[in-house]
Amino acid sequence: MGERVRVTCYAGYKADERPTAFIWRDRTFTVTGVLDRWYDRDGNYFMVQVEDGGRHLLRHDLNEDLWELVLLREE
């Protein structure tokens, strides 16, 4: 579906509650806000804004416990 990324998450009342940063192609993106989130049976989706103004869609695959960058939109 997307490209695998390494994600650092905030863990509040549950693990991997929301992403705080991700690494894609050796570049670190710091998440400044979660613009939207939705959940389905197999994954959690997060539309995030990063410090350079870009908006990106991240997916946490719950079956494989891995993260993917689904959409990269740089401003």
TrEMBL record:
Domain DUF6504: 4-42
Pfam families: DUF6504
InterPro entries referenced in this protein's UniProt entry, alphabetically: DUF6504 (IPR045443)
Protein name: DUF6504 domain-containing protein
